[in-house]
Task: structure prediction
Amino acid sequence: MTVTERPAVAEVSAPIRTRVPPWRNPWRRPYVLATITWVYILWSLVPVLIAIQFSFNDGRSRSTWQGFSRQWYCCNEGSVFEDPSMFHALRNSLILGIATVIVATPLGVALAMGLTRWRSRASAVANGISLVPLVTPEIVVGSALYLVFVNLYHFIPLGRPAMLLGHVTFSVSYVLVIVRSRLLSIGGEYEEAARDLGANSLQAIRTILLPLLMPAVFASAMIVFATSLDDFVVSQFLFGSAENETVPILLYNAVRAAPTPALNALASILLVGSFLALILALVVLRGRRRTGEESALETLADWG
Result:
């Protein structure tokens, strides 16, 4: 190779540098999307934060700040826990939410296990029907249940029994979706291993499958509780009389009058309860998944 040929070789071997357009740069931050996200979050949270702020107002105004006070929550006349109607509505909401969890959670778990293990054409149809409450508008569910209870099921009175059945009707689908997704991620290997080691079907479910499902079961129970606590449409159709008013119904009826900041305090308590239930569900679902797998493996090891 001659001396005159070396520059040509250098030119060929030199890397070609091209300028990456800004919209194709993977390290460029999505400022537009981030701005839209934060604008949406602020638009959603500002009215809620204002309502919470005036629940601590020192005066009776719900629009003019008059100083900080906790008088609308407890221990003063007109506060949430001193007003019989507000305290009764809060009690009704808690009882209804707990009862819905007790009924809907095991029913949803059983449906999830049955639909996951049931392999046929009819199972696909049954799975689709079980998800109908998730896509059906609540006003349709509430009005349909009202007509059924009034005209057909006369032995179920309007009030707490009808409200419980209505809440269970739309809550089972949440449990079904969450638990079934966990079942599909687990697969059938653990149960097959338990049967190979001498366990029957009930023992495999009780000692292997349920520990693996407990995070999903608990998370679905908390979501059911939060959903039942906040429900208005179905409860409005089925509550019957003022004795069975829940917090959303009371808020809807009282906001038309001239309410005090105690109404803001009651709404804040409901909001905090729902928020804590959802946070607890998320924490348990993330933290206990690995623990359940380790427990199942230890049980299989003991049998082996």
User: Anything to note?
Assistant: The chain has two domains: 31-69, 84-303.
